[in-house]
């Protein structure tokens, strides 16, 4: 019985069948979660029944979109599903950029360097800020600091 689990796991992970199946065999081409799940110090010589450390199932991924997205020209950003879209907006200096909250949750738009800061935006609320100086403006939602956005202002 234990020979089967050994045969299945050909990648050196010796923590159990579940680990072998999830970690090795499948084609998880996406970003693997970086949490080191098991300590390699457990000296159990192959499966002593009770103490099998089950790793965390990879279900708890935050809804963070990839931040490295190409700048999108325009003057409007929608706030939807706890994200700014487009994540990176490109505008000319002098442009009034409008954010619209399409979530049922309140959000804010706050420049990391303090250049602008919206009040709390309820559902459907709009915030407008006119960018007069060229530069790159990284902003967040202060309620949900994992929400990142960028406005690139060109001269
Ligand atoms: Co938010």
How many E strands? 9
Order of the strands making up the biggest sheet? 1-4-9-8-6
Strand content: 25-35%
Radius of gyration: 23 Å
SSE blueprint and pairings:
Elements: H1 2-8, H2 17-25, E1 72-73, E2 76-79, E3 84-85, E4 88-92, E5 95-101, E6 110-111, E7 126-131, E8 135-140, E9 148-154
Parallel strand pairs: 1-4, 2-5, 4-9
Antiparallel strand pairs: 2-3, 5-7, 6-8, 8-9
Bound molecules: cobalt (II) ion.
The site of cobalt (II) ion has 6 residues, from loops.
Which terms summarize this structure?
4-stranded mixed β-sheet; 5-stranded mixed β-sheet; globular; 10% helix; binds cobalt (II) ion; mainly beta; 155 residues; disordered N terminus
Write a structural description.
- A hairpin with a 4-residue loop joins strand 2 (76-79) and strand 3.
- The chain has helices spanning 2-8, 17-25; strands at 72-73, 76-79, 84-85, 88-92, 95-101, 110-111, 126-131, 135-140, 148-154.
- The protein has a five-stranded mixed sheet with strand order 1-4-9-8-6, with no helix packed on it.
- The protein contains two helices and nine strands.
- It starts with a helix and ends with a strand.
- It has 155 residues and is mainly beta.
- The structure holds cobalt (II) ion (CO).
């Amino acid at each position: 019985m234990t020979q089967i689990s050994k045969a299945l796991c050909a990648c050196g992970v010796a923590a159990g069948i579940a680990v072998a199946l999830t970690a090795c065999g499948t084609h998880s081409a996406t970003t693997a979660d970086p949490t080191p799940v098991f300590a390699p110090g457990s000296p159990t010589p192959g499966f002593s029944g009770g103490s099998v450390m089950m790793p965390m199932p990879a279900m708890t991924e935050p809804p963070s979109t990839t931040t490295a997205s190409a700048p999108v020209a325009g003057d409007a950003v929608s706030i939807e599903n706890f994200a700014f879209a487009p994540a990176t907006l490109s505008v000319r200096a002098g442009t009034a950029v409008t954010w619209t909250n399409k979530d049922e949750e309140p959000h804010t738009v706050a420049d990391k360097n303090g250049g602008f800061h919206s009040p709390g935006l309820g559902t459907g609320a709009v915030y407008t800020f006119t960018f007069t100086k060229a530069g790159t403006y990284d902003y967040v939602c202060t309620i949900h600091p994992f929400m990142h956005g960028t406005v690139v202002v060109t001269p």
